[in-house]
Amino acid sequence: MPTNRFHSAGIILHRQITTHLEVLLLHPGGPFWAKKDAGAWSIPKGLVEEGETPPAAARREFAEELGLPPPEGEMVPLGEFRLPSRKIVTAFALRGDLDPADTRPGTFTMEWPPKSGKMATFPEADRCAWFTLDAAAEKITRGQLPILAALRAHLAGA
């Protein structure tokens, strides 16, 4: 059975800084996203491979995209979210901390410029940063806004 290209899993890493909560978001690498900021950021996420559970996929994708393993701790399921692309993302909340300067993102290769026959390598994420929930709501892709809302609801009930 091939990988389901419509099912991804990801981790929304969060931390409490004195009076406010922050979440870690990634800015996708590559030429399509280079000049986009608002509405372009994402949680670390990726496809669930054949035989892999969503929590295992979320941990693997976090490590691939950031070059660091996710922090130790309980991954709390936030639910499944349908993106405008029809992809389903199973999202997990994880409390933890890391320094964005320590990240070493993985890479991907694609033809660039288009129809040139030349292959170029780009980082999966060209940067990552911590944002308050309000700032994250401006940065994250529209389809992932419900993940932020689910995290907010989870933490309000915790």
Could you please describe the fold and organization of this structure?
This protein is α+β, with helices and mostly antiparallel strands and 158 residues long. The chain is built from three helices and eight strands, in the order E-E-E-H-E-E-E-E-E-H-H. Strand 4 and strand 5 form a beta hairpin.
What are the SSEs and their pairings?
Layout: E1 7-17, E2 20-28, E3 45-47, H1 54-66, E4 76-82, E5 88-95, E6 107-111, E7 119-123, E8 125-132, H2 133-139, H3 145-157
Parallel strand pairs: 1-5
Antiparallel strand pairs: 1-2, 1-3, 2-8, 4-5, 6-7
Tell me the distance between the termini: 38 Å
User: What's the alpha carbon Rg, rounded to whole Å?
Assistant: 15 Å
Question: What is the succession of H and E elements?
Answer: EEEHEEEEEHH
The coarse silhouette is: globular
The total count of helices amounts to 3
Share of residues in strands: 35-45%
**Helical percentage:** 10-25%
**Unreliable residue runs:** none
Gist of the model:
This protein has 158 residues and is of the alpha+beta class. It is 21% helix and 35% strand. The chain contains 3 helices and 8 strands; from the N terminus they run E-E-E-H-E-E-E-E-E-H-H.
What would the keywords be for this entry?
158 residues, alpha+beta, six-stranded mixed sheet, two-stranded antiparallel ribbon
